[in-house]
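Structural prep section.
Before we set up the soaks we want a predicted structure of the protein with FE2/S2 (inorganic) cluster in place, mainly to decide which crystallisation condition to try first. Input record follows.
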Amino acid sequence: MRDHALLHVNGVAREVRGRDAFMMLAEWLRKELGLPGTKIVCAEGDCGACTVLRAFDPPGSSFPEAPFEAMNSCIAIVAAMDGAHVVTVEGMESEGELAPAQAAMRRCHGSQCGFCTPGFVMALSGMVEQHAGEPIDRRVAANHLTGNLCRCTGYEPILEAACSLRTSEAHRVGPRYGTLDRRARARSAMESGFEVEHDGLRFAAPTSLEEACGFAAANPGFRVVGASTDLGVPINKGRPMPETLLSLHLIPEMYEARADDSRVSVGARVPLSRLRHLCADAAPEFARFLDLFASPQIKNVATLVGNIATGSPIGDTLPFLLVAGGAVGVASLGEGDGGLKRREIPMTELYRGYRQLSLAPGELITHVTFDRLGSDRFLRLYKVSQRKDLDISTVSAAFSVKLDRAGGGGAVGVSAARLALGGVAATPIRLPAVEEAIVGTLDAARIESLAELVAGSIRPLSDVRGSAAYRSVLAANLFRRFGRELLDG
Ligand SMILES: Cc1cc2nc3c(=O)[nH]c(=O)nc-3n(C[C@H](O)[C@H](O)[C@H](O)COP(=O)(O)OP(=O)(O)OC[C@H]3O[C@@H](n4cnc5c(N)ncnc54)[C@H](O)[C@@H]3O)c2cc1C
Ligand code: FES
Ligand code: FES
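Run finished without errors. Recording the tokens verbatim:
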């Protein structure tokens, strides 16, 4: 058992213990390592000023090269970075030469006050790492910059800088920092679990599920930490860090992600960006929808299981999981023999109330599964938020119908339906009355009456994002849109 987390920063190995282990990465880099190039502005994952690159070889993996990807360092707990290699803006220069993204920002006048600039440079460098050898167009560039805000330069020169980058240029950080010796050192450290403590706080990372469940059983009140993109925000706003944190990042099973002919299975530590990749083929509408989820910096680390376990009624993935027959796999230690006990909880039974999950004490979520929807299903996922990118939903919807005969004359035949909404109740919900009523021949007139039924089936609350009346109108209008898209084929 180690008494420290091990991470590399700009090529240097760092063993982290005590107070440092419980700091947020951005603060630690700036205050303890003297690397102030990483800026902290919002401290909640929204502005990208704190962007760094991270490479991580999951335990048990044998990837030829662990990619360096952009992430926000302001909401990442240092201990949870165990095994990772972090590169900050200070590590980008090579032999006195600016990195391509730095040179492009200078060439295209992409910086004025400069406070956001290190974050943009790191986001662009993440893009260079991920698109090596590919051309960069405005769409790719804009996508990689979704998580970065600049309040004085304006985005045009920055986009120009992005599009002028040639991804074949030298100075990629992958080959420079992701060397075999460093990766071997991280892998060998990750074969042992670790525990660090400071001032009443405890962070444990075991290497097997049995040990993790043993820890959970022995420590009531523990919290699992994934990428802390949810957990980290309230901590930065002054809420105390949970006293006992359990990380599953050293357990190989947590990184499994696969799709067979009927079902997709995603381990608790699979980042959303990897899930998006898997779903491009296995669940294309969900993959498209994930493009609207947060920013690359968030998706490169955040997990599907974290989105589920947070239990927010506006968690973007939840309506989809409700209509796709989603279920979470959970594990705990059995009471009798103390062996590992596993069970599945359907998504329809997971939420007991606002942010309340039907997990028994000591249970951990190990993975989530959902159906691959066949070609006889028509599925659409919608999200309404105040801005398109990097925003929390006001209302989200997943509507799926099973078609039993081809349309014609402006109508389709529906034999079954699953319809779900987020943001209209304390939990994400299905709409059983509408699901029943929709079966039969569906035309424009019935879509209109069913839209009224959608609005009548929900009792939303008012909050800062929208009044109850507005949410009802949104839900009905999303259904009308679905109906139109269905009739249009
Ligand atoms: C800037 C920003 C933008 C965001 N945009 C979106 C968005 O567009 N849509 C959206 O839905 N969400 C969004 N989020 C919220 C967040 O990113 C997601 O909910 C994400 O999926 C959480 O994953 P995580 O791994 O970071 O979870 P964490 O923050 O690590 O954990 C979240 C919760 O899940 C619990 N948990 C984690 N793993 C397990 C497990 N294995 N077993 C039991 N409990 C577990 C934790 O204890 C915690 O309560 C955003 C957050 C930020 C900061
Ligand atoms: S400081 Fe704004 S995203 Fe981290
Ligand atoms: S250059 Fe000033 S905030 Fe971007």
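Observations: The mean pLDDT is 94.
Flagged for discussion at group meeting.
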